[in-house]
């Protein structure tokens, strides 16, 4: 550790780059002009990423990783915290609805849905209460304002996700360099960041899933009873973390078991027996854990709260086509977003190379991850082309395994493949490929307005790519609560997508009374109408609606600030 001078230099530079990047997103300054500022933030993130990637390839001893691990964790945190660094309150909907279920525990100390009048989904959420209980515990132990925990809970958990990927990759590959690169690939993936940037149990359940796989593999490598206990603990926590994830992965584990049963039947063929069967024999003990998770997860869903299963069955019975895997050629999706999204498939291809290489290495732990990867990909194909399943979530589930194999491919290319190629050329290739994959994930995680100055409005993005003033939204909601004589289930507020959740949360108005109807402009059926005239939308015909003031000129304006106008029929 003391002799690796290049890593010392990289460590110093990356700390400085992180300070500059964090300051940029916190204060969002314009340096000379918007074009130069945009180029500058691109260069800063590119420099940071390329240095961290290069450092992963020059690690010589296990202790060398500590030169880069803290910076990687901070980078992971910043990537998720950008919306909360730019805005005073989270802008998206789901976190507020979920946080109401947390307030149910904080304020009343019970899992009974007392705040169900506020948000009807409280009952569902409190049947999978791990995130809410963890938040409540943190609030009581630290005495930190609950709003700050609400804002930065998931970015902090994202650092644990990085460590989980790091430990999993290190356990499987026995390489700190591979593990560090895998952590970067996974933690700076756009889909993973999206679910771990907001207060949402989906992002947390991914962490528990990776930790479950890690402690399980570790328990198979060494005879230590502690890892067996940890496996049981993480199984329970994982099952109670989210209503969708355990149910879906229980089905994935079923596929895993089916594959383990089928391969021995094929071992009569000499090729299968020589290439695969010997590797499969090391996975015989996997069946016990996966059966426990399958039975527990399905049992909890069917016996404790079967309505969630009924909801999923009603969705899949429609046999709808899900979102496309490649978005090129779709007129409603900006070209740059399609380009950035496509780079996750580069990682997919890199992963396939090392998965096929298992035929040569015959490593059981790699084989375990390869089966899980294959099962999730198979489920993704079925979900995308046969029934309606959230494709982005399916991709998010295979990312933890794809990054291990993708990192292995790049390190094998560097160290033992194409030996005739010059080392300098090889290092340039792996740094460039790795950096582009990570950059694409970083800049495709949130809407462009979070990153770049003078970003153009576009109705494809959240808020039409125009960041709102959340302080002004909060002030509107508090005014509505105080002055509009709200009567639950009677008074109705017509809202737009962007101001819906702040009126619900900061105005303490029932979810059922905050009415948002897609494509209905104008909407005169409510007692009050709340709009932001700056943010355009599309109607049902795809026509852009920019001048919304004319739509409500027959109503009375009762409140206005720099962001919002409130109309009344009274």
Task: Give the helix/strand layout.
Blueprint: H1 5-27, H2 34-57, H3 69-86, H4 94-108, H5 122-125, H6 130-142, H7 146-173, H8 176-187, H9 190-197, H10 201-221, H11 225-239, H12 245-265, H13 270-280, H14 286-304, H15 306-316, H16 335-342, H17 344-356, H18 358-361, H19 364-385, H20 391-415, H21 423-443, H22 470-483, E1 493-495, H23 497-506, E2 514-515, E3 528-531, E4 537-538, E5 544-545, E6 556-560, E7 565-568
Parallel strand pairs: 1-2, 1-3
Antiparallel strand pairs: 3-7, 4-5, 6-7
Provide the descriptors you would attach to this structure in a database record:
single chain; 5-stranded mixed beta sheet; 63% helix; two-stranded antiparallel ribbon; 570 residues; 23 helices; globular; mainly alpha
Q: Major sheet: order of its strands? A: 2-1-3-7-6
Q: How far is the first residue's CA from the last residue's CA?
A: 73 Å
Number of DSSP-assigned strands: 7
- What portion of residues belong to β-strands? under 5%
Task: Please write the string of helix (H) and strand (E) elements.
Answer: HHHHHHHHHHHHHHHHHHHHHHEHEEEEEE
Oligomer: single chain
Radius of gyration: 25 Å
Catalogue the unreliable spans.
317-322
Shape: globular
Helix fraction by DSSP (H/I, runs of at least 4): 55-70%
What structural class results from the helix and strand content? mainly alpha
Number of helices: 23
Report on the biggest sheet: 5 strands, mixed
What's the mean pLDDT score? 87
């Amino acid at each position: 550790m003391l002799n690796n001078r290049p890593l010392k230099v990289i460590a110093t530079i990356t700390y400085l780059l992180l300070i500059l990047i964090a300051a940029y997103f916190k204060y969002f300054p314009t340096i000379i002009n918007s074009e130069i500022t945009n180029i500058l933030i691109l260069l800063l993130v590119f420099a940071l990423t390329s240095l961290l990637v290069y450092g992963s390839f020059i690690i010589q001893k296990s202790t060398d990783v500590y030169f880069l691990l803290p910076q990687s964790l901070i980078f992971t945190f910043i990537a998720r915290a950008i919306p909360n660094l730019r805005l005073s309150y989270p802008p998206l909907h789901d976190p507020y609805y979920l946080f109401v279920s947390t307030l149910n525990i904080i304020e009343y100390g019970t899992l009974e849905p007392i705040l169900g009048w506020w948000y009807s989904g409280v009952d569902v959420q409190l049947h999978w209460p791990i995130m809410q209980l963890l938040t409540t515990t943190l609030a009581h132990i630290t005495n930190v304002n609950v709003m700050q925990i609400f804002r930065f809970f998931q970015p902090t958990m994202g650092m644990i996700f990085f460590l989980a990927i790091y430990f999993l990759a290190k356990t499987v590959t026995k390489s700190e360099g591979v593990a560090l690169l895998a952590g970067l690939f996974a933690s700076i993936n756009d889909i993973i960041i999206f679910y771990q940037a907001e207060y949402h149990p989906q992002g947390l359940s991914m962490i528990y899933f990776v930790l479950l796989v890690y402690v399980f593999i570790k328990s198979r490598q060494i005879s230590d009873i502690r890892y067996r206990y940890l496996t049981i603990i993480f199984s329970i926590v994982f099952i109670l973390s989210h209503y969708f994830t355990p149910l879906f992965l229980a089905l994935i584990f079923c596929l895993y078991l089916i594959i383990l049963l089928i391969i021995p039947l094929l071992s009569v063929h000499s090729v299968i027996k020589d290439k695969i069967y010997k590797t499969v024999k090391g996975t015989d003990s996997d069946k016990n854990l996966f059966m426990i998770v399958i039975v527990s997860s399905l049992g909890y869903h069917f016996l404790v709260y079967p309505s969630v299963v009924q909801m999923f069955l009603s969705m899949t019975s429609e046999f709808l086509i899900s979102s496309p895997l490649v978005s090129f050629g779709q007129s409603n999706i900006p070209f740059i977003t399609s380009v950035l999204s496509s780079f996750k498939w580069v990682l997919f291809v890199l992963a396939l190379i090392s998965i096929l290489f298992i035929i040569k290495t015959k490593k059981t732990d790699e084989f375990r991850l390869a089966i899980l990867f294959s099962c999730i990909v198979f489920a993704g194909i079925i979900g995308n082309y046969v029934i309606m399943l959230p494709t982005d979530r399916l991709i998010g589930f295979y990312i933890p395994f794809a990054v291990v194999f993708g990192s292995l491919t790049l390190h094998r290319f560097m160290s033992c493949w194409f030996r005739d190629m010059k080392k300098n050329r090889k290092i340039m290739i792996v740094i460039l490929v790795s950096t582009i994959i990570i950059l694409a994930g970083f800049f495709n995680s949130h809407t462009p307005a979070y990153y770049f100055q003078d970003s153009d409005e576009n109705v494809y993005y959240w808020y039409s790519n125009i960041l709102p003033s959340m302080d002004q939204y909060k002030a509107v909601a508090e005014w509505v609560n105080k002055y509009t004589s709200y009567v639950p289930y009677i008074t109705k507020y017509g809202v737009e997508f962007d101001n819906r959740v702040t009126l619900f949360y900061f105005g303490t108005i029932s979810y059922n009374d905050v009415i948002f109807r897609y494509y209905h402009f104008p909407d005169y059926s409510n007692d009050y109408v709340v709009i932001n005239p700056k943010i355009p939308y599309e109607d049902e015909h795809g026509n852009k609606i920019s001048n919304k003031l004319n739509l409500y000129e027959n109503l009375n304006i009762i409140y206005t600030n720099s962001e919002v106008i409130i109309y009344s029929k009274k």
